[in-house]
Design a protein that fits this description.
membrane, transmembrane, flat, mainly alpha
Length: 124
């Protein structure tokens, strides 16, 4: 049995206490496995030199990336809107006598806020 099989058999045979996080033997095994004991490979600045020689991103590629992000947001929103049960929500809103304009407005504002936040987060 090779080393992988030994490790895998230990993981597969975990007890309920190990899964719940109160098994000292499992904690010791996990801490041993997570130790990074390989030596650092010094490259004498090679990676930094290569990165410095790469061309800077152009404005055109940044604009293209922004357009792709907007297109992805629009596509995802269209899929969600396509799958959303509008008829059931509207029927229930009428039954509950909730103003449809306020309900739709809150939904649109929340969606726009979420999309804007996602785009801003992706750009930073």
């Amino acid at each position: 049995m090779d080393s992988f099989d030994q490790k895998h058999s230990k993981i597969v045979g975990m007890t309920d206490s190990a899964l719940m996080g109160n098994d000292p033997e499992f904690d010791a095994w996990l801490s041993r496995e997570l130790q990074f004991d390989e030596p650092y490979l010094d490259d004498d600045g090679f990676c930094e030199q290569v990165m410095a020689k790469l061309p800077a991103p152009s404005k055109r590629s940044e604009k293209r990336a922004t357009r792709v992000q907007y297109a992805a947001v629009v596509a995802a929103s269209a899929i969600v809107a396509w799958q959303f049960p509008f008829d059931e929500v509207l029927t229930e809103a009428v039954r509950q006598s909730i103003s449809l304009y306020s309900l739709v407005g809150v939904g649109l504002l929340a969606s726009l806020a979420a999309m804007t936040g996602g785009i801003l987060a992706a750009r930073h």
